[in-house]
Amino acid sequence: MAAPVRVVVANQPRLMRELVVETINEQPDIEVVAEIQNESEILQVVDGTNPDFLIIGLDESDRRPAICDVLLQRHPDMKILALAPERNFSIFFWASFNIHASPVEASEAGILNALRGKGQS
């Protein structure tokens, strides 16, 4: 059997957080590893638990919460589910990476410059 999906549930209104945790706890393949009431604790708890998913509240703007950028840079394999239950809306965030290319002069100097990071755009 595969390891359970590890989830941190954060800064939802208490009732919503309890409903999410109760739903997850009924699933044999998903585990709540932490519950967070205060947004200020999210980064520390995520760093300490390294979850597969973070579930957070979404404000009225529907913009990606600023903490998502920091968290996804530090934990690029984690996914974030943002919920706005009062509007029956949710959105999923994850990180991906881009592959870049730059020509390298086919010479000793070109190879050494590439290894030193020169000429990267």
Structure described in brief:
The chain has 121 residues and is of the alpha/beta class. Helices cover 31% and strands 25% of the residues.
Walk me through the topology.
Blueprint (H helix, E strand, L loop, with lengths): L4 E6 L3 H12 L4 E7 L5 H8 L3 E5 L8 H9 L4 E6 L4 E6 L13 H8 L6
Parallel strand pairs: 1-2, 1-3, 3-4
Antiparallel strand pairs: 4-5
Give a description of the structure.
- This protein is of the alpha/beta class and 121 residues long.
- It has one domain (5-94): Rossmann fold.
- 31% of the residues lie in helices and 25% in strands.
- It is built from 4 helices and 5 strands, in the order βαβαβαββα.
- The chain has helices at 14-25, 42-49, 66-74, 108-115, and strands at residues 5-10, 30-36, 53-57, 79-84, 89-94.
- Strands 2-1-3-4-5 form a 5-stranded mixed β-sheet, sandwiched between helices.
- The radius of gyration is 20 Å and the shape is elongated.
- It starts with a strand and ends in a 6-residue tail after the last helix.
- The mean pLDDT is 87.
List keywords for this structure.
Rossmann fold; 5-stranded mixed beta sheet; 121 residues; alpha/beta
